[in-house]
Amino acid sequence: MGMKDQFQDKAEQARQKAQQAKEQAQQRGRQGQGPGRDRMRDEESDRLQQEESDRFDQDYDV
To answer: What are phi and psi of 33, to 5 degrees?
Structure first.
């Protein structure tokens, strides 16, 4: 496996982790555990996912 593949795998794992965190936050919101906190978590997940995507793009000049 080349370096490019490793970076792509890590980026994909980070995206999946961010998506899972977002989904969990949404589920907690449906259960009534503070919609304000969930929105903050959603925004943080989105921010982390965007940062990971930006790093990936810089690594490969996409």
So the answer is: -100, 55
